[in-house]
Batch of 2 targets.
Target 1
Amino acid sequence: MTAPPTDPARSEDALDAFRENRIYLGADHSRNERRTLIVAGITIVALAVQLAGGLAFNSMALIAGGLHNAAHVAALGVAALAYRLARRWAADPRFTFGAGKLGYLAGFANAVVLAFTALLIAAESLERLISPEEVAYTEAIWLAAAGLVLSVVCMLILKPAGRHRHEGGDLNLSAVHLHLSADAIVSGLAIAGLVAGRALGWNWADPLMGLVGAALVGHFALSLVRRAAGVLLDVNPSPALAEEIRLRLAAEGERVIDLHLWQLGPGHHAAVVVLAAERPAPVEAYRARLAELPGLSHLTIEVRGTDAVHSCA
């Protein structure tokens, strides 16, 4: 009996649907890309103003803020490029599991930039502590306050959507949001150091706040490195999800003999599972047990009889 002829149009539609299911971008990808570009423009203006003010008023805290804003410009540029390339290559067959990890690569790069920025701020602050210089406190305080307000505004623009603030969310957006959070803290410390210097004559307060800010920026950088590296190295992103998969698949006496879970992109996970069962059910039956798990976007299940398992042991 010959098989019925295949409809080329239907085959192409099925292939398109298959490719669509392999796109692992975040749910708010376009929104986050657009807002990142807006904040990048704002930050470039702030960078120029803070550096000019720091040099004019001889404030290390303001210069530190400017250097930190330079890191923001680089971070936002890298983040925006990652969003664009991930969207462009989302269905590219060269990427076995899609281009969803580009944001994590950008986040790792931004963490390195943030760490170098912390070192630069610390070095300059130490030099100013050893050899304090006169500061135009009033002007510097007003400029630092303006920088703080600007950072808060940018943070609000880049605030992650409510349903994507968890650890499996958009790390690319989290990275630039972390940059801005650090900048807001550095600006607050700058204001404190400048006020103390003006009110009490403590010329060392301004560079000391620069050192404290450098320590905080370094801490944020290390935190970001850990998160990004974990995804890039396929560390288990959710032990709780892995355990839930194990429990559901072993609900009727089956045994999970191998389980791998990793992240494909914001809100998307992949799992490969090997099961052993005395009376193996069809693979689709096991898939149905996991159908309601959120974020499980790619699933491969292999089912073996217990005899096959014993013979391989």
Note: The longest strand covers residues 255-265.
Target 2
Amino acid sequence: MSYNNILTQFDNGVTTITINRPTKLNALNKETIAELHEAFKAADNDSETKVIILTGSGEKAFVAGADISEFADFNVEEGADLAAKGQELLFDFVENLSTPVIAAVNGFALGGGLELAMSCHIRVASDNAKMGLPEVSLGVIPGYGGTQRLPQLVGKGRAMEMIMTAGMITAEQALNYGLVNHVVAHDQLLEFGMGIAAKIMKNSPKAIGKAIEVINAGFKTGVNGYVAEIEGFGYCFGTEDFKEGTTAFLEKRKAAFTGE
């Protein structure tokens, strides 16, 4: 499938999705959100894709925010609809994919860009990255899950400060806060992400997908994460990957997982 705003590339089990609007600092507009949904859906449905890496084109920005020109004149109902559809199509969709998603954050990740990175399962940042949720400086709040995911990752106090000051933090601060997993030189970012992907791909896709589901369950209102874990643990015993993994261990060989 061809896209206007993103690029996709498959290599050795990894699909890399690149947001490609460099003249707009890769800002998210409706079309880009729709294209990202389709690209993530296609990669998740592709049995050859074991890991997805998401990044932005150029050296300046991962995603510098949403395209404000699209919603500057919206009313209350239109604003709420914008947030609801965006979360459904992209942010919640990415968070709940069974295929692991690594955000390779190069440069600015602001507003919707940081919210997109936070919806990914793992975040790696270049040393020149800057992150923040500046929405209150526009008279609005984060609308793509930022008020919920940021406190989960960095704690309520730091999230309150980041959101209320509308300020940016450096990659090193993001690492100290637990907002990103690793910080590396810009020219090593994708290679480092590929290294994490290679480690993930040694393991059972079926178990990884179930682990993502169960970890997310623990952050959902009204869901008992421990019960979800027990059910997920039992589920794994009925998979071919479990049979292969335990047999390989007992036979002292490397497992050849099929994702079944």
Note: The first helix runs from residue 30 to 45.
